Amino acid sequence: MSDLFTGSGQTDILEHLTVEGYDRPIVGTVYAENRLEWSGCPLGGLGTGYVTLDTDGRLGKWQIFNTYPQPMQQNATWLAVEVDGRQYVVACSKDGIGDAIAVRYFGHFPVVDAIFSFAGPLRVQVRAYGCFLPGNAIASNTPGILFDVRVANTDTTPVQLRITFGPEKMPAGRRQAFSYGSWRGTTVTHRWLSNTSSFNQTPPLHTYTVAGEEAIPGGSPERAAVSIATTARPGEIVRRKFALAWHQPNYEGFFQQARTPQLCPALWRCQRCGSQRYR
Fold first, then answer.
1. Following DSSP, what letter does each residue of 185-198 receive, concatenated?
2. Are 156 and 134 in contact (CB under 8 A)?
3. Distance (Å, rounded) from C-alpha 155 to C-alpha 55?
């Protein structure tokens, strides 16, 4: 399986790395799991909030719900892979949840590359990124994160895979399934979480979306999710894209013309930016 990045194999040192999508080595540091004290790399749109992807594989700090001044510390799992009926949560173990035994993490804003190892017959690589394009403020203002997920079957026989995407600990609300081109997902509309109104007005209802290419919406009453099922041959790499996007205005007139409650256009811009620069 071709890695998203390669180096000396050491962690916590500054070195030259060969990174997918770059035509020459770049300088950076690869971190092992749980090595960063504060947080991982922030991902999101310019001026629209952020979510950090931490070195343990969890979505750590969230600042997309207008909960000023401090971000919410969620430490949420968001990805699981089922192999022949056995589920692997793509995160290091914490409170009995998480199946990754090792992580190699390289944050190069606005991109995070992470490689997860397991005791089972799989290996997972993730490239997560937001739209941040110098000179293009409109695209950079997209409130979303795209997750390019690659699962390798390391077994010697074919396996049945189910990849499920959906962050835990998200606000509950009214759900609506949608489709946009090859994308399928669920938009959740919920009440604002902040205890203080902004600009002396009550903020409107907020929304967020979880989606995937050719995915099936699902999840549980507590957690919106999408999933993709397929068969993987020995050594085969299954690659799928997922997205998290949000629309969390401060008050009714804020970004009224620049945002729409249906977040499909935001997802599409995020995918298009990634295919142009962060392939």
1. EEEEEE----SS-B
2. no
3. 26
Alpha-helical segments (H) within 14-93: none
- Looking up tokens 């085969």 gives 236
C-alpha separations of 93 from 18, 33, 149, 214 in Å: 29, 10, 20, 30
Place of tokens 């001026």: 47
Range of weakest confidence among 92-101, 143-152, 265-274: 265-274
Q: What is the mean pLDDT of the chain?
A: 85
Amino acid at 182: S
* Distance in angstroms (rounded) separating the CA atoms of residues 22 and 27: 12
pLDDT band at 199 (very low <50, low <70, confident <90, very high): low
Q: For 54, phi and psi rounded to 5 degrees?
A: -90, 170
Q: Which residues contact 148 (CB under 8 A, 6 or more apart)?
A: 126, 127, 128, 129, 239, 241, 274
CB 45 within 8 A of CB 141: yes
Residue with tokens 């026989």: 157
Q: Residue 91 and residue 139: Cα distance in Å, rounded?
A: 30
Nearest to 116 by CA among 158, 61, 79, 167: 79
Is 90 exceeded by the pLDDT of residue 87? yes
Phi first, then psi, for residue 274 (nearest 5°) are -65, -40
pLDDT for position 219: 86
